[in-house]
Amino acid sequence: MKYDVVVVGARIGGSTASLFASKNGLDVLMIEKNQEIGTPVQCAEATSSSTFQTLEMEPSPKYVCSEIKGADVYAPDGTHGHLEGGYAEGFILERKIFDKHLAIESAKAGTDIMVKTRVKDLIRRDGKVCGVVATHMGHTLEIDADVVIAADGIESQIARKAGLKTQHTPGTLCSCAQYEMVGVDYDPHYLQFYFGRKIAPGGYVWVFPKGDGVANVGVGVRSDTKTAYSFLRKFTANMDATPVELNIGGVPVRGPVDKTYTDGLMVVGDAAGQVEPFTGGGIHVTAHCARIAGEMAVEAIENDDTSRGFLKNYQKLWKKEVGKDLKESLKYRKIMDQLSDEEMNILAKFLKDQDLESISKMSMLGFVREYPQFLKLLKEIL
Asked: Do 100 and 224 have their domain in common?
């Protein structure tokens, strides 16, 4: 069995890479270990409009649960800040439907798909990745490919088998637990975020509305603390709402891995750490980087050069286009990790009276004069 490209993983990263490789005429196989694409859900399901721009798709009520206009943010003492528009705008997806829809679009473009299939190893010739060994329903398959794209998630075995350092430690991960709940009281067009070391050390609690009283209620915490599930149980204990689904997983929050390519292989999405470290959100970043990977596979095959020397252009491109934003996000993640609850409360009281889109340096300097303990953080921001 021979393909131009084999993509391992059929979530947003895998389907996006497959879609754009197939659109450009390549013979593509996408492999998914689960029997159904889109499950289980391990995501808060929020994304920005840029995701649809990247995918050249329009938001559809088939897979968009609600349109988001802003967010309400709560400090540990209950101080409330409101964000309207801008970065806070976006959509809540039904990932079970959206992921499958994206895979279907990829199939329509020509991608072959195998579900309930596990990649066990890579095929190498002269040190170069040139295919995969997979098992499907008790049968072992050897599948040759000019390029392999690893989109197999945070625990990516493919990248590691290729010799890339993608392992995560407790200090580089955020542990997450989320209920989908019925009967949640919310404004249907606004996200809710709750901060505080007692409810979510090193992270936050979120309430993302999906419409008709249904919401994703989740918590992300540093992986070296108590389990995210225990914090979720505590936060939801007094809510007059009922869980209908529980999802547990992890998110890389220390930025991208150092190297996302080698001879014959590229890595995308959570496997590559292509996630915003501050928010833990990755749908729009993954889609952007995966499209670059799919199109880079086209260029590599057209140039008959799938060496690391050529595929390094993939990393150059995604760093050029999203690298700065990820660095900024990591900076804010590190700042948040340093703040005590008291400092969060002070900062929240200051920021609630500011226009966050055009906050002045004079306002910041006045704040630092009153609270000199924030001077170091101000230097990091500026």
From this structure: no
* Dist. CA 356–CA 125, nearest whole Å: 54
**H or E element in which residue 353 lies:** none
Strands 173-182 and 242-252: antiparallel
Q: Averaged over 316-332, what is the pLDDT?
A: 95
Please check whether residues 138 and 55 belong to one and the same domain.
yes
Residues sharing a CB contact under 8 Å with residue 217, sequence separation 6 or more, in sequence order: 178, 179, 180, 181, 184, 205, 206, 207, 208, 232, 235, 236, 239, 241
Token pair, residue 35, equals 């029997």
CATH number, domain at 85? 3.50.50.60
81: in domain: yes
In a domain, 339, yes or no: no
User: 331-340: per-residue pLDDT in tens?
Assistant: 989 888 889 9
Domain count, the chain: 3
What pLDDT score does 75 carry? 96
Question: Does 280 share its domain with 362?
Answer: no
- Shared domain for 44 and 138, answered yes or no, is yes
CB atoms within 10 A of CB 96: 17
What is the amino acid identity at position 324?
K
Q: Which residues are CB-neighbours of 130 under 8 A, at least 6 positions away?
A: 123, 124, 144, 145, 146, 264
Instruction: Say how many C-beta atoms besides its own lie within 10 A of residue 93's C-beta.
Output: 26
Number of H-type helices and E-type strands within the chain = 11, 18
176 vs 360: CA distance, rounded Å: 35
Phi, psi values for residue 116, rounded to 5°: 50, 45
Residue 302, domain extent? 2-168+257-334
The Cα–Cα gap between 152 and 26 comes to: 21
SS3 215: strand
351: how many CB neighbours lie within 10 A of its CB?
A: 18
Domain annotation covers residue 340: no
Has residue 342 been placed in a domain?
A: no
Averaged pLDDT score across all residues of the chain: 93
Q: Are strands 90-93 and 64-68 parallel, antiparallel or unpaired?
A: antiparallel
Q: Are strands 2-8 and 28-31 parallel, antiparallel or unpaired?
A: parallel
- Are residue 110 and residue 198 in the same domain, yes or no? no
